[in-house]
Amino acid sequence: MHETPLFSYALRLADNALILGHRMSEWIGHSPVLEEDLALGNMGLDLIGQARAFYAYAGEIEGKGRDEDKLAYLRDAKDWRNVLLVEQPNGDFAATMIRQLLFAAYAHPLYAALTKSKDASLAAIAAKAEKEMAYHVRHSGEWVIRLGDGTEESHERAQAALDELYAYSTELFESDDVERALIDAGIAADPAALRPEWERTVNHIFSEATLKTPPQSFAQTGGRTGRHSEHLGYILADMQFLQRTYPGAAW
Amino acid sequence: MYTQALNVKDEPAAAGDPVLEARFQAHVDAELKIEPNDWMPEGYRKTLTRQISQHAHSEIVGMLPEGNWITRAPTLRRKAALLAKVQDEGGHGLYLYSAAETLGTSREQMFEQLLSGKAKYSSIFNYPTLTWADIGAIGWLVDGAAIMNQIPLCRCSYGPYARAMIRICKEESFHQRQGYEIMMTLARGTPEQKAMAQDALNRWWWPSVMMFGPSDSDSQHSDQTMRWKIKRFSNDDLRQKFIDATVPQGHFIGLEFPDKDLKFNEETKHWDFGEIDWTEFKRVIAGDGPCNKQRMKQRRAAHDNGRWVREAALAYAEKRRNREAAAKIAAE
Ligand SMILES: [Fe+2]
Ligand SMILES: [Fe+2]
Ligand SMILES: [Fe+2]
Questions:
Q1: Predicted confidence band at B7 (pLDDT cuts at 50, 70, 90)?
Q2: Counts of helices then strands in chain B (DSSP H, E)
Q3: Alpha-carbon gap: A184 to the closest alpha carbon of chain B (Å)
Q4: pLDDT tens-digit series, residues B236-279
Q5: How would residue B1 be classed by pLDDT, with cut points 50, 70 and 90?
Q6: What is the mean pLDDT of the segment spanning A224-234?
Q7: Which pLDDT belongs to residue B19?
Q8: For the residues A46-58, what does the mean pLDDT come to?
């Protein structure tokens, strides 16, 4: 399948947002306190909204009549471009908040950089998303601090979640030829350039939270090119079931 | 949502202060609001606490059957709308717990009452959501019935409850329209989709009609709550209003109601309807509905699994207070 770099790039942004939004939505009605049902719902809605904007744009770039739903509901796992971090299961509340922090602390400077993209559509979507992700950093960061510096149990859980999920953070800062060309053209943001800010943000929070930043271990990567963990298939099975069972129906 | 579960005897009118009571009743009769710090009869406080907390519990238990379908919603627009809807219901729970707290019971206490089974919630949520059409049916019928119940509550004599209801009713009517729109889309879709919509209506119709509670002749609480201006219309009046509003909507999209006695009465200008199966109603309230046990199990699991999180938040807040106090002393 030949596709333009810009299409691939928009799809990567969309897939990250949708899969993480889907994960957040799994919490609704089951969270530790009613206020968090609302907060997790808000974050899920932000992410799904971002995904829809990026899908609509990707479909436009492609020009083959694929809309947001065709892109979201009719691709198999190997065609999904999200990073592995966002498809990891919710785990306990600590794992969800650590995952959210690791991602949001990357997405926030990413969207900030994209507001200056030479591609006006990307810049416009990023302008809204940047503000949303700033809230996600704040909210998840506050919880990571509370949990890390809360009770013995919450500290242990937060550290265990961080130890498990940290290996997925390297992938956030990788780039490939698809992105290189766009970076050089001033359209995409260079992921490697986002890393110092990401490190400042998360390390500051981890130190307040009395959590130890794990050593940089083997990096789990592959999502951007369609090599996923086992979890994505189950997400898609749930998400796509109606569209697959009743092909062509309008909902 | 719903005040339906309020089918228990009124609190006996305690021998209170007759002067205060007369003044209270005059205030209510003049359509003035009672506020948290005003004197009120104990029975009024207890009745309202029970009604508002049951309403709050219904909102949060009600998040479960619909929440089921967020991950499976068939389009991204529907997914976002359903997530927002379920989140709204959580917000309703939050306002209502706050309103009930102004009467002197804490949210934690109310939660304990729900989880121990002492407090009820609307038994409509003990029915399962089996297909996507159930999400349409719940919005259309269950939120629709809730609105009928709740619009009069916007004028309830208790200020905090009335104000919460005004805000909630706006959102519920949005949910109702959204649910109806889902049903309409299905009813005008493929034959399978239409069958899905019809099946959902068949399963949700009678439970929705029962949401208004027992017939007035069997209701044990109407008089006192009417005098206190908590309740304004009888169960049967509200039920009739709901049926009259809903039946033409269903017919308009080509769906049939599962009631062979349903027909328009030219004389009364109301829809006559068949016998309600009150044994089923009582059975579900008593705990033997299809999902009572699962719903409570999920609520309990969320509460239990979240305990360490709530404890951590408290422990952290206390550490912080202590550190700030120590820093202040050191600075002096
Ligand atoms: Fe409600
Ligand atoms: Fe509600
Ligand atoms: Fe609602």
A1: very low
A2: 14, 2
A3: 33
A4: 999 999 999 999 999 999 999 999 999 999 999 999 999 999 99
A5: very low
A6: 95
A7: 92
A8: 98
How much distance in Å is there from the Cα of B168 to the middle of ligand 3? Answer: 8
State the Cα angle at B94 between B285 and B80, rounded to 5°: 90
Which residues make up the environment of ion ligand 2, defined by Cβ < 5 Å? B 59, 89, 92
Look at the block and give the residue holding tokens 């004028």: B155
The minimal CB distance from A69 to the residues B75, B193, B302 is found for B75
pLDDT digits (tens, 9 = 90+) for B132-148: 999 999 999 999 999 99
Nearest CA to A161 out of A205, A216, A102 is that of A102
Flag if B193 and A249 touch (Cβ within 8 Å).
yes
Give the tens place of pLDDT for each residue, B300-326. 999 999 999 999 999 999 999 999 999
Helix pair A231-245, A5-25: axis angle to 10 deg: 90
B51 CA to middle of ligand 2, Å?
15
DSSP string for A33-54: SHHHHHHHHHHHHHHHHHHHHH
Query: Which ligand does the CA of B124 lie closest to?
Result: 1
Distance of alpha carbon B121 from alpha carbon B5, whole angstroms: 6
First to last CA, chain B: 54
Nearest-CA residue of chain B relative to A19? B71
**A154: closest CA of chain B, how far (Å):** 6
pLDDT surpassing 80 at residue B22? yes
The partner residue sitting opposite A33, judged by closest CB among B83, B84, B310, is B310
Report chain A residues whose CB lies below 8 A from the CB of B86.
28-29, 41
